Amino acid sequence: MSFEMIFVLIMIIAMLAGLLFEVARPDMVIFSVLVILLVTGILTPDQALSGFSNQGMLTIALLFIVAGAVQKSGLIDRMMEGWLKNSKTQTGSMLRFFLPTSFFSAFLNNTPIVVTFTPIIKKWCEDRGIAPSKYLIPLSYVTILGGTITLIGTSTNLVVHGMLVDYGFSGFSLFSLAVVGIPIAIVGLIYLFTIGHRLLPDNKGFSQRVQENSKEYIAEMHVTESFQHVGKNVKDAGLRDLKGLYLVEIIRGKEHISPVKSRTVIKQGDRLIFTGLITTIAELEKIKGLTLETGTNIGLNDLKNGTSNLIEVVVSHQSSLTSRSIKEAQFRSKYDAGVIAVHRNNERIKSKVGEIVLRPGDTLLLLAGSDFLEKHYQSNDFYVVSSLDTPKTLKQNPAKGWFSIALLVVMIALVTAGVFTMFKAMALAVLILLGTKVLTPGEAKQYVQFDVLLLIASALGIGAAMTETGLAEWLAKGLVSFGEPLGLLVILFMVYFLTNLFTELITNTAAAVLMIPIVLELSAQLNVSPMGFAVTVAIAASASFITPIGYQTNLIVFGPGGYTFKDYIKVGTPLSILVMITSVSIIYNVWF
User: Which single residue of 193, 235, 238, 338 could bond 262 by disulfide (Cβ 3.0 to 4.6 Å)?
Assistant: First the structure.
């Protein structure tokens, strides 16, 4: 091995460690490694920037906008909600919901589908006394399986396609992957309907659990005439930075003031609603003029009667809130919302609310103003999974919604007929959406997940470093020398397993980008078609079922379902094995 190969290998190992231990956002970890490779001269500027002009990456950017236009209309959401309401049994509801969901995920981005359908499923379950945990992991899994059917079903497929084109190959057609994607989707659905749902936990919704234990979180104090700070604002009254307790709402007669600002004036007779560690309630009792209301029936339902809403959100993997405490992030002032409780790994965190350091997948229960959803529905900081209706969706023009869906269908038909490449079709679709004012330029920008694009483009640059230094060739030779005596089928299983392992530990696109240079060298040394190996990588990189961190849809349902890592392992491992056996068997017989 040359010095350059050793250096690149060390950087890749460091990158994998950084992703695994979540030292920073995934896109920043990978981009940092790319910059180091550029500065040290391993990569030229052209090589380092090659990922930013990759056709697959740019197609993903355009697809975000097109899918956003379809999502904005809310038509699919309302259709599915009405369709689900007619379900009588648990098995019947799973069939009615998950079959069309897997179809939609073949043509739309998986993330907005899961974000949108999570509250619909939760509300349906809560209305019928069914645990949402029986439905939310399957929701994530069926969108992953459906996404393997077409080229545009998942960003992974498009990245692999873009890399193949860059290396001089023809890449995938729109339905190249369907020969594998449809069978594994069927196998996966059968498993989830028969065995999988029995292995899922029976967890109540997070907000339900908090409501049942509201006294553990909420304390009510009355302001009497002897309170020396009557007429002063909250900050001057010393109620802003109390140890372990936070003032989230003031109830003044029929008026509900929430969230409470520092300049809000305290008046006699006010009911002050605090949240935090109730064990520190003695701190409030020491303040003369504040009377603890004993035996109160105050709870979350009472708080919702005012102008405030109860919102449940999940901290996203690209959130600017991660690795900072709620207080450091200035959550209250930034989002005009108070944090009622935090949920992690099916546990309520027993520490001061303001000092909780947030992680991806944490679920926050917020008391927020009525315009919170409209303001932050497209925020990259978290996924909104509240059971409340989304104002942004309800305001849309149905005609524009049908136009967006029809445009997507037409573009897919043109790609299938070979009239346009996927990139040209999506570019034209975005131009039409902007030209007809179905989307504004500002909305289009909101729908693009720039952190995902940075991650993909940076990972492509690292893939180039593996090829240019000869590291990919060296690793491929190692695989050949180990697997060739055992046969091509065993090598396929090894490639699938390695890709899938990377996906579970880091991210799907990063796993695909790391493996493609290796398998292209592998196919050259074995003198076989590279397409079979490329399909293997694309499917294995998407098939993340065993951990919540490998695929962002798993992370989205992690908090709302009240799941633990063990739940994913228990339900996802059999599914992962079934998908691997089915995929490798089909790929071996079709491409080799």
Answer: 235
